[in-house]
Design brief:
The chain contains 58 helices and four strands. One of its GO terms (biological process) is regulation of phenylpropanoid metabolic process.
Length: about 1250
Amino acid sequence: MEFQFPVELEEELEREAHPLAWAMKMGEGIGPRGLEMPSPELAQLIVSHLCFRHNHPSLWKFLHHAMSSGLLSPIHVLSLLTSRVIPQRRSQPEAYRLYLELLSRYALSFDASMTDSCKVKIIESLDAELQLSQTFGAQVLDLGHAFVLFFFSIVTSLIDSSLYDWGFRMTTVDKPSRAVASMDHQHMDVDSSGNYQMERNEHRQQMRQKNSFMAIEVLERLTESTKAIVLLRLVYLNMPEKFDGLLQRLQFLEGNNLAFSKSKSARQFLARLSGNIQKVPSLEYQLKKQQLIRMLVNLGSNNPVSRCNFGSGPSGCWVPFDIYMESAVDGKQLLIKSAIVILTEKIYTLKMFNRASWQETFLALWLSALRLVQRERDPLEGPIPHLEARLCVLLSIVPLAIANVLEDEAKLHPSVQESGYGNGMDRKGFGARKLALISSLQLLGNFSGLLCPPASITTGANNAAAKAASFISISKNAKDGLGSGSPTGNFLNKGGNMMHLIVEACIARNLIDTSAYFWPGYVPSSVVSLPDTSPSQRSPWSTFMEGAPLTDSLIDLLFTTPASSLAEIERLYLIALNGSLEERPAAAKILCGASLSRGWNIQEHVVSFVVKLLSPPVPPGHTGPRSHLIDHMRMLSAILFGASSIDTVHILSLHGVIPEVAASLMPLCETFGSLIPTSSNKSSTSDEPSIYMVFSSAFLFLLHEMGNSMKQLELASDKPIYIDYYPKLRAWYCQNRSCIASTLPGLCGRNPVHQVADKILGMIYLKITKPGASSGNSLTPSSGNVCGSPVKSGEDAGQMPMLPAWEVLEAIPFILEAILTACAHGRLSSKDLTTGLRDLVDFLPASLAAIISYLSAEVTRGIWKPVPMNGIDWPSPAATLPSVESEIKEILASVGVHVPICSSGSSPLMLPLPVAAFVSLTLTFQLTKSLEYIHAVIGPALENCASGYAWPTIISSLWAQKVRRWHHFIVASCSRSVFRQSKEAVAQILRSCFTSFLGSLHNSNSLSTKQNNINGLLGSQVLTPGVCPSLAPGFFYLRSYRMMPDIQRVNDVIIGLVSEYVQESAARWTSSDSPLLKSGQASLSFAAVRAKEVATLGASLLCASGGFQLVQELYCETVPTWFLSSKEEKPGRVSAVARILEGYAMSYMLMLSGSFVWGVEEKARSCSFSRRGRIIGIHMDFLARVLRGNISLCCDPATWKAYISCLVGLIVSCAPAWIRQVKPETLRTLAGGLKGWHECELALSLLERGGVSTIGSVAELINMFN
């Protein structure tokens, strides 16, 4: 229906009747005409007559009354006026003044309570008048969305108008507002209606000038409002490029003070406007209703209790660093993802959650790494990573992680420096992280107990200190003009500590510069200068770089001396690829020596070159079917042996190159496993490495990296590496799986595989029956046989079948079936069985993988009778078994585990035949470094076999008898098997972890007096000295959780412990009779800090135990089930404060664990991003269903409300990027629940980070603000 301007209204305009009467009369006429209120048609009509046919003051007053009474929509009227008045502000200064008055009153007035059809009309009108969709590049979704865009358009239009009126022109990051652009090609005193008469009225000219300043004043008053800040913040969060344009305008205004030189008030308005706008990016909600919730969410920001009190000891808020580092150096599992990347993410996460400064964060990181190294002072001797891996973390991984953090800061700087604008607007912050790093390094001197270097690196630390003293001497001489600036003498290597090594690692990566040498006290007084006559030792690397040939003596020196520069490593790499036949393996050997294990300052580069050598490039002009890898066989043999040692493999793992190494090993296995060895290529008398040796090294290396599970091969590299690309490898994999799944058919001569098995069985039989046959117990390494068997005669060599390695591996299961059956039926003695197995491994070391797979499968089938371990047929453990069982009980008792252990008692000592055969085989291997790649495979297999009832102690006793220096390691490893058999043991060790870190629940003073104790949790040493060394509970758990068959149970145990500890500590801290605290507020603060520490420990242990799997279960099952389950509680013990702290601890643990596995950054990896969104969405949907009343809870309402409020608060403040991955409807439900609990500010903060789809909801919610 067309709405005509009433004739009577025009008549009343002439009579200047009261505008309020017009508004009442117009309101009465709306209903009969079938129109709605507010009326879009009436607004259109009134404004069209006002601009400018009836530009009468009374009509402006009518607009005021119509908007205040709800007859017209304020944002609709103002949008209509904006598109008409601003372009005419020069010719209609009175109208512009009145428009600004209305704007100051109604710009933030928003009422969404109207019919849908009315909303649609207003949205369409706003979009058309202000060209919102075109300006912002997005469709207007709803009225609230339109309101946000309308307000931002008003702000930019007024600033652009004032700039234009003052004669300023600027190039903005976005286009000028449409209202100003329409005047770009017209004279300032000429309006767009074609009125070319120059207005000379002095009053109107003054009004024009005042209007420009009034526009800034209006904006200043508007942006003082919280509503305005929220609206602008929505633009900042969802359209940052548009907000940058606003910042650019303000900066331009501030840079042109001439316009305000005569107006002090104008300068003040502009300064306040700029200050208001700059609050937008840093605005945080204030929880005015719930002071306790606000304190919990912001815990750490201004609370010294939650910060690290480094002077008295480590703080619990940083224990995730310690737990992750200790878990990372566990040799049981290699890392697929780089420790550098993981540690970088943890740095950001913990800084955010602890509300810490960069200095505190870096210092906590260094201290955790130093504790990691100090724990290895008296290590367990055994086939596990030792000091090299821990030093790699301290001196390579941590500096590289910090380098990532500094690089992220540098990436943000250029854009800020170039334009002078940016989202953060904190240009003073650039370089703050580097300054914090320097400060943290200087503070390390306060921790002398952690800086004492282990004996093996004392020389390196002393050299670093002497280097600094020499640098200072050279600088001093150069400054004093004494010659060319050379040192006055050599310096005695003395007084160096771990700080000197850390500083050198940072300088080498350009994190700091050599000014660190001049820090007070950095060069110890014990570093003294000696006369020039003192002999100086020349580095072998200098000799090498001068072109000296690689003689045996130089090779040995280079192998044991780490390189000091990248140029040295690059030259070595080129020799390994392109040198002479003798130089290539020598260069590969050197590369895997001290430069890889102890060249911390360039370790990442050495690792990169080692990986490259595993995949040598195809030489130019290479053609034909013969693989180019064969030409590099000697070099590959050297690099495989060098890189497959236990410590080296773990260093590669820490640097995250396991996927690349696996991808390089697969073609090596495919190529060398398909070659038929020649007699010269098989004989151990030859100096050439054998084809079998290269294949076996690569194959066992591959299985070690993949944890003997080929399922991980497809996940091994960023680029897909499918096993189908390697048909021989795939064939073995499929056969291996089928052998595990079912028993084998008997041998028959028709099958080629069986024919190969017959040949090898014949060879084994001849060796067994030959007089003087040796079982290979006296092994000596040789170049031809990696297992170190004695040199064999040409006759024996001739008896060995010339077969590709893949064919031999395919026949192994049938060979094992035959000899195991023969032994079971008494046709083959136990000694001959062991000798036969060892001969098989000597023949092809890679066969060890098939032996392990087959025997392990046979154990699970349970078809083999046990054999007596009596010392006659099979080795006997009787001599050491009692002491081993006793020590296992003592170790378990020391970590708080009191459960029965597997014991043979008085029954005969028996093992299943496959287990006895495998154990006997492993006892034949010598413990030399050249066989570490063998022990890396048999170790985990032996542990798996030993996990059966009563077997662990038997097997451990046998090995303890063989290797006495490994006794403690063997006993400690055997102790872990209790977790495979007892769920109660899992609960007990986790409780011990909490007790050792937080104190005992049963001690009335423990929870309130005990400092959190990282050394109590993880130990200051791996082993506490004694007749039976004890282990720290946390360390023992981190080495044992992989033995737990039901790892999901860890979630339930941890969440129960967190709840129990929080309730007890809250009761103790808030008790009125506490002699330690006089202030109730202080008691509550301490209780909250302890709740945070409990949750932090729980999240750290949970993530270390199961990573993504357990965190996913925590979100989707464990926490929801905990809320839905009834709990047995003692009546009257749990206070309301304890309930609230319980909810806070649960939310904190959930958030922290999720942040550890997914990160808090917006730019996560694609797979992590999708997983994160899915899991968080599931949990949030559960919360929303509860709030809607679809699910009933069994928990206390105070716990539930605290959980929701704290969870949302933590997400908003620590991981806002997560919010956009939640469904908008779920966010609205959560916000509605918070609003019902009077947490409007928190609800607002949640919605404003929900993306464009929740902008409308925010606009509706801000009406709750006064």
